[in-house]
Predict the 3D structure of the following.
Amino acid sequence: MSEKAWFCYILKCADGSLYTGVTTEPQRRTRQHNDGAGAKYTRGRRPVKMVYCEPAPSRAEALRREHEIRTQPRARKLVLIRAAR
């Protein structure tokens, strides 16, 4: 039995802020955020749009990458998003 794929993602919120998270199903997680069932941070900032998503080999690696991205300044996050397009 293979391990589920994990992803680290960035959402752009309606107020222009960025939210970083991890999931095994990016489309489902985006729907959850837009339905108000996601993170508390995004509930009042809907709608959200996934602007960046990268695969990770494990949950631990996805969480490590999430922390790495969250601690970067906004400008570096925007560079990362633009580079992925």
